[in-house]
Every structure is written in C-alpha cells, then in structure tokens.
Amino acid sequence: MNGPSKSKSIEDLENQLLLKNKDLTEKYLELETLLDLTNTINSLDDLDSLFFNVLTLSSSILNSSKGIVLIKNEVSNIFDPISVFNLNEEKIKKQIFNTRSGFLKILNKEKKSFIVSKEHKFNHELFDSNYSIVCPIINGKKLVGAIIIFDKETRQGVRDFNKNDLKLLDSITIQASFAYQNIRLLESLKKSNELNENVMSSITTGIIGINLFGEIEFVNKEALRLIKKEKEEVVGNHYLIIFEKDEQLHELIQKVELEQERLFETEFTIKPAKKKISVNLSCSPVFDDNKNFSGIVIAVDDLSKINKVKSTFKKYVSKNIVDKLLESEDSLNLGGTESDITILFSDIRGFTSMSEKLSPTQIVKLLNKYFQSMIDVVFKYNGTLDKIVGDELMVLYGVPLKNEMDTENAVNTAVEMFKKLDNFNKEIIKKGFEPFQIGIGINKGKAVSGNIGSEQQMNYTVIGDTINLGARLCSHAKSGQILISNSVKDHISEKHNFKKIPSIAVKGKAKPIEVWLYTHKRKPNS
What we know:
- There is one protein chain.
- Helix 1 (3-43) runs parallel beside helix 6.
- The chain starts with a helix and ends in a 7-residue tail after the last strand.
- It has 17 helices and 19 strands.
- It is flat and about 120 Å long.
- The chain folds into three domains: 16-186, GAF domain (Beta-Lactamase); 202-305, Beta-Lactamase, CATH 3.30.450.20; 324-519, Alpha-Beta Plaits (2-Layer Sandwich), CATH 3.30.70.1230.
- By secondary structure, it is α+β, with helices and mostly antiparallel strands.
C-alpha cells in the first residue's frame, strides 16, 4: 500500500472513530438527561410540576420545538391541556379532545406510542406543525392522558422523528405514568386523611379510640376539651392513667372487652379533672377485616353543653316553636324536604357609612338594641330566625312548623318592624345618633328546608330559588319600603296597603319580576 492511500485510510478511520465517539457522547448525554429527568419527576409531588418538567425536558432531549400534555378530566371524557410548551394555549383550550376520534382514539385502543403519519389524520393545523410523536399516559391499564411533542429541530431544519426518538420518549412517558399514579395515590390518601381529621375535629361528640393493649390511639378536640388535657398527654397512654379516678368507666370498658358488645349509658358521670361532668356515653367494640376484636371506641356527649344549647336555641326561635320541636324528634331528623315557605329579609340601609363615624363599642351596642327590638317582633309572629348576617336578618315562616297564617305573619312582622324602628330611632336620636333606615323583601314559594350536617352537628337552613328572590327583593327595597312578590300578595289580606309598581329586573331571572310596594310613613323626628 502506497503512502497517500494508507494516509487516506487512516484519515477515514479517524473520521469514523470521531463520528462514533460523537454518537456515543450524544447517547451518553441523552441517557444522563433521561436519568436526571427520572430523578426529577420521581421527586415531584404535584401534577402541574410533574407534567411541566416532563414536557420541557422531553422537548430538550429530543430537540423538539413545542409540546403539550393532555390529562383526562375526572368528571368527563374530555382531555384537558394541563401543560403547554411554545403553543397557542388560547387556541388549544377552545379545542375539545376526546377518544371518539383522532390520535386519542388510536391511543385509547392501542395504548402504544406512535410517530404521527398522514394516515392518522392528525390536526396539525391546530398545533402549527407537520411532525409529532404521541405517547399515552396509562393508569391501571386505562388511558388517562397523552404527551405530544412536535417538530424535531436539526441543523438541516425541522425533521420528522425517528424510531430512536420514539423509544426515548416512550421511556420518559412510562416513568411519567408511574409518577402520575404515585402522585394521584398520595393526593387521594392526603384528602382522605384530611377529611377524616376534619370530620373528627368538627363533630361535637368526644371520640376516644383504645387499642387491644388499652392504649389510647386517637382522641378528637371535643374529647380533649372534656378531659382537659393536651393531645400529647393522652395519645399513647393507657386509659387507666388518663381516667385514673373513673372506676365506673374502667368497669364499663372491661365489660365491653369481655362481652364485645356495645354499651350505652345516659347521664353517666366522669371525673377527668377536679370537676365532675355529666355525659351520655357509648362504649363500642371495634373489629378488623377478619372480624377479630381490635379495640374500643368511646363516644361522649357533654350534657351540660346540650342543655346550654337548648336554652340558647330559645333565644333565637320562638319559645312555642322550640317546645313543639323538642316534643317531636321527627322534626329534627337529618335531611331536607321541599315545602312552601315564606322568607323575609330585612337590611339596614347605609349602615357601612354610618358605622364609620362610630366606635366599635357604639356599633355593637346599637346593633344589639336594634336586633332585640326586631327579633321580638319576629317571635311575636312565630317566625324562625334563620341567621343574622352583618346587619341583615333572614326570617322563615312555614318551617320547621307550618301555619295557615305564615305569609300573613311575615307581612305583619315587616309592618310592625317599621313601627318598632320608629321607637328605636326616637331613642337613639336623643342620644345624638343618626336614625336607622331599613328595607324589607318578602317572597313565598317552594324551597328545600332541613337539617344539614351530621347527627352530632347540624344547621337548620333553607335553600332554593325562592330564597334568592327574597334576597333580591330586599336589595331593591329602598329605605322605608317593603317589596313583596305576587305569590305573597295572593296570600295576604286586603287590609295591607300594597300597590303594584313597575316590574323589576333581578339577577338570575330572565324576565322582570312583578312586585308590590308598601311604604311606611315615618313618625316625625324618627
């Protein structure tokens, strides 16, 4: 072999080695980047961060100019764009993605990644692209999303993706699918734990959980309040230590351990601290999945608190209604029923600007005196005070107990409220305060009423369009006015001097509402 030929062969060999070395270096960098990506996505604990990192790093590894991640909506069959890179996000959000057609239909059927070709009928116009790879995100053998990247950029311009690109992105997507499953599982567990904690913390019954060894494993806030101890003192300690002086309670727990049946004691006395407490107490066995005895749960209701609630309740609802409710337990069952009700809203006009001139103490004193005079009228006509919100009263008639005079009573309440207001204003004007001015709205119709919450804690309330319209009428009523709907006018006597006025437009109603107006004639100096 002559000199020049040998030199050329060596040169060719060197070039080949350089190219091989370059390829190996690129592969090494890709693998290193892939490893970094895997470590990154496995360290993330929220979906937004996960898919943003997957998308941007995938695009970087494959020299892609743009990309998108679609995730299936939990309540529909639509796939939402959860992460978008270098695409027209506004345009994409107008598009509906589902498995009925296109690339998602193929993914849903095959569950495999693919390089998009012309026969796939991919909507490249939407993404302003001609080349793409589509990879499925799988959870439990179900398609829950897709990663799509577009336009591989090279020195020669934009090119189509190849099989190596497909393998690489497929590997990334598999890792992303595992990370997705882990994050969803963690989110589910977190929500479940938070829900349990919130429920147990909010209920008004004290709950104490005891394991097989007699150690207290769980205690909620109400139980801690009753036994007057901190959580750290209780959890992990034996019940004999925590309830050292309660021999009757010891006997009750031991009896449940032996008989493994629930025991209930009314007006049971416990003495967790210096003061004795009267409670209703239930002691129930707990069993595991194999029906083996695994502990005891004690539930405690503070009777002193219950009696206080009853007496407080009478301050908010007419005494005769309270007495009837306490006679009939069915009236206080958890749940809701639809019925005809009359709703009254009363609101102080200009109170915000007026209160700016007064001290907090003066505001509270004035409001308390005002509410006392108004609530006296409410109870006189057997109204149920649903709530006080700021300077507004919400009063119900027809629930929880019905009366033929409910709507008439509501209007009588409103008229007398203005008379009481005149007397109230006369007193406060003498003391140098500005007079209060109120507007009232009354509506009648169907609404869902009932006790919402749990058996340990519930709120009696009403919901429905009837309530919303009542509130709207109140907001339209000017100072000294009562606005009522047709349904109210049809159920009251002619003695009330209401005049029909032009219909009003209210939020949430397509057509104007017919209304009737009563204007209170104020007394002089009020």
